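fyi for ur records
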Amino acid sequence: MEKVYIYKKFERFWHWSQAALIFFLALTGFEIHDSFQLLGFEIAVAYHRIASYLLLGLIGLSIFWHFTTGEWKQYIPTISKLKAQIQYYTIGMFRNDPHPTIKSARKKLNPLQAMVYLGFKLVMAPIVILSGLLYMYFKTYDANDIIIISDIPLEYIAWAHTIGAFLLLSFIVIHVYMTTTGHTLTTNIKAMLTGWEILDKEDKSTSNSEVEPTKEKEK
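which gave:
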């Protein structure tokens, strides 16, 4: 076994900040829907709006980082070994079968992860963001002919935002579960906290030229 530096500082900052903001948006969103009482409706709305702006800013930074560092290539989907990866998660890992794909600094995501994360970035997140912006800046006709920001009924926008939010929460629940499928229950979580990932010996020959220069051997 060997520890290899996989996740860079900004990558870890972006990951945990995004998770915290999404959970906070879910908390305030449920209160806005009157699911429970904690902050109060008006405060929940105000905090929900602030958190949404912070998330938009974070998304902007992450897009810039992904394209300037070339990390966007991690999300290029492929069907190579996709079936084997699905079989591993549904059956193989419960039989201690070897992992069908090799992980390295340049190939952090297996085919299934790349496809799901791309869907998160291109489908789930845009649905929530666009519907949220339409909801915040929605205007309709009145006697004085107020300028229309959207001619989509507010009810449809609200439903789209709610459905997108639930899809996002479902993704996070599955994502949290998948973090427990590493060498131990906490291996993947520790890797995203420290940046160091534990790789099997057979991964070493393919990852030597792909990882950060600084690395240490596990005691």
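The first strand starts at residue 2 and ends at 5. thats all i got for now
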